Amino acid sequence: MTAVDTADIDDGRKPAAPTRAFSAFEWMIAGRYLRSRRRETFISVIAGFSFAGIMLGVATLIIVMAVMNGFRTELLGKILGINGHMLVQPIDQPLTDYDAVSARLQGVPDVVSAMPFVEGQALVSGPAGNFGALVRGLYESDLRRVPLIANNVRAGTLDGFDEGEGVAIGSRMAQQLGITLGDNVTIISPRGSVTPMGVTPRLKAYPVTAIFEIGMSEYDATFLFMPLEEAQAYFNMDTKATGIEVYVADPDRVGIMKDTIEEAADRPAFVTDWRQRNVTFFAALEVERNVMFIILTLIVLVAALNIVSGMIMLVKDKGKDIAILRTMGATRGSIMRIFLITGASIGFVGTFAGFFLGLLVCLNIESIRQFVSWLTRTELFDPTLYFLSQLPAEIDSGETITVLVMALALSLLATVYPAWRAARLDPVEALRYE
């Protein structure tokens, strides 16, 4: 037995207890490694870039996904708000009993409203030019039940809509035609009167009694509403209707309600829902949303790789310190946890800083857009290209949590290899030439 062993027995001392996992000692050492000193400036710069990369990556992901969600919600609300959730069209025979069919559809549970309409394409003319329009004839009572129209009348009124011969047009159409409230808009239809010389186009002027603004540029520039009976007379529809638009309480249940609607119609009819009519448009939005998520995730991945490089350099720089800690009794597990804390702290703080930055931008995105447009003297969000007049943002809690978990997981995984290398460092080799 050696002299050292004998002294230990004589003194009655016991081996030191191992350090508790993630103890204050390990947090203290990790904190010291995160604070830069003059000779470690380069490593601190790499850590700073890693932090900034994760913060910007997380913020960008949250902002872009929120904007994509906002686009989908706004477009879906606008499209369904003016076109209805289900469309009932006649088969074999004209829809002359539209009032009776509408009453039967109105009695179906979960049906909010059933609106007969007459629709046709025409050319509208004004002092500033001629443009194509979608002319739709509705009862005044039905038009008032379309919130996007009734709640967004910017000039004029819908009062007496059925009794008069006036029309309601969108704000962008009024702007393009160069007309205001009370002016006449000329509507030209190729389906006019039949004469010995052929079919002559029908041309008639109507006063503008209401100007609405939905907020979707395509609809504000295209839709023109007139009384149902006037539309029947103009398009030579006599006592017929083009179809019946059905609004239901839950648009996602239209597939379940389709058979019930067909039975309630009690006549040959072709029923389509909003998903069938807009399947390509919303499928494209979903694909774009998923692709953007994958592409922007690469930003977070690159920032995580920066953590790997920075931690490997830190391990090399701290080789002597690691050896001294090992000779003082620190276990390999303790060394590994120290460097895990060091690297994960960068990812943790960067992730939550990115979350708060993204949240701040999403809550003020329209003000930021207006400021940047004013600063650069450019139109960053042209309504004619993006359909909407304002930049929408809708934060989805589940999606945001997924982004945060992914960023934290990547940051933690990025520190595993450098921490493992630090734990495997041989103290003898590290101190051989010191």
Automatic annotation (TrEMBL):
Subcellular location: Cell membrane
One GO cellular component term noted in the UniProt record for this chain: plasma membrane protein complex
GO biological process: lipoprotein localization to outer membrane; lipoprotein transport
Keyword terms: Cell membrane, Lipoprotein, Membrane, Transmembrane, Transmembrane helix, Transport
InterPro entries per record: ABC3_permease_C (IPR003838), Lipoprotein-release_system (IPR051447), LolCE_TM (IPR011925), MacB_PCD (IPR025857)
Membrane topology annotation: Multi-pass membrane protein
Taxonomic superkingdom: Bacteria
Transmembrane intervals: 42-68, 291-315, 335-361, 401-420
Residues of the MacB-like periplasmic core domain: 51-263
One Pfam family in the UniProt entry: MacB_PCD
Domain (ABC3 transporter permease C-terminal) ranges: 293-427
Primary subcellular site in the record, as a coarse category: membrane
Family: Belongs to the ABC-4 integral membrane protein family. LolC/E subfamily.
Protein name: Lipoprotein-releasing system transmembrane protein LolE
Organism in which the protein naturally occurs: Roseibium aggregatum
